Amino acid sequence: MLKKWLLVSGILLSAITLFIWMNNKWLEVSSYSISSPDIPKTFDGARVVQISDLHNTVFGKNHSALLNKTKFIDPDVILITGDIVDSSRYDLNVMISLTESLLEIAPVYFVTGNQEFLKGRAEKTISAIKASGVIVLENEMVEWKREGEKIYIAGIHDPLVERSTLVKKYVKKALADIQFTEKFTLLLAHRPELVVVYAETEADIVFSGHAHGGQIRIPKIGGIFAPGQGFFPELTEGVHEFGNTLLVISRGLGNSSFPLRINNRPEIVVVILEHGKQAEGTN
């Protein structure tokens, strides 16, 4: 009887261990096609990879699993939408080794999340990321050129840069510092819950993270909790339309204060740009 009990316990423990590993280490790629007549023809088919909320998590030896997945996608550009580090287990060298390897695949653009500004490490972190060759967008926009045509990539600091409770006021000011034009524009902004503010600009696609997919996901209900949104949040993954602006939300890759993901595998997002009909997102 004891042997049977030990056998059953061993099987259950193995199953639970496998379930936890799969939910926290088995990378998933979510792909969306976004069409717009404003996307230049030379950008038709361009692949944008979004990586978000790593929180110092490593996938495979020397990030091999994450790098191999990203390389297989063959992106034209890689966007990192904040929280590459975690304030509680800060290891900048580990993350810099990742950014240096990602740069061998495609140009990399980065905006800060809230974790970058905790415990007084912001300047050190941002300086190191810049030194690795990544373009850090600090309330500014740059041109992405392709065969003589261009679109813009813009990005804003997380509001925690000012440690202010006036979050919306800060974001409006930050966005005002970016000169949006009639050109198609991608905006990197860590927090999805501020999408109404982003949509007041001429940004065409906003890339956000921060919500961690709701951390624990229940089928047909969605995520349980997200920072900035509370319980049963609406903005945790996928593509959402707000007027003329599309919001792309990554479920992210790592964990922070809550250590586990459940029914919420770590996610790499791919957006394929298409020159065509009015902008829309499709899975």
Q: What would the principal axes of the Cα set say about the shape?
A: globular
Beta-strand content estimate = 25-35%
Q: Which structural class is indicated by helix and strand composition?
A: alpha/beta
**Average residue pLDDT:** 91
Report the CATH superfamily.
Answer: Metallo-dependent phosphatases
CATH fold group: Purple Acid Phosphatase, chain A, domain 2
Largest sheet, described in full? 7 strands, mixed
Number of strands: 17
Helix content: 10-25%
> What CATH first level would be assigned?
Alpha Beta
Strands across the major sheet, in which order? 5-4-3-2-16-1-17
Oligomer: single chain
What Rg do the Cα atoms give?
19 Å
Counting DSSP H or I runs of 4 or more residues, the number of helices is 6
Q: What is the CA-CA span between the terminal residues?
A: 51 Å
Supply the CATH architecture. 4-Layer Sandwich
Spans of at least 5 consecutive residues whose pLDDT stays below 50 are none
Q: From N to C, what is the helix and strand string?
A: HEEHEHEHEEEHEHEEEEEEEEE
Short précis:
The chain has 283 residues and is of the alpha/beta class. The chain has six helices and 17 strands.
Commentary on this structure:
Helices cover 24% and strands 27% of the residues. Strand 8, helix 6 and strand 9 form a beta-alpha-beta unit. The protein has 283 residues and is α/β, with parallel strands linked by helices. It is globular, with a radius of gyration of 19 Å. The strands form four sheets. The protein has a seven-stranded mixed beta sheet, with helices on one face. It contains six helices and 17 strands. The longest helix is centred in the first third of the chain and has 24 residues. It has a single domain, classed as Purple Acid Phosphatase, chain A, domain 2.
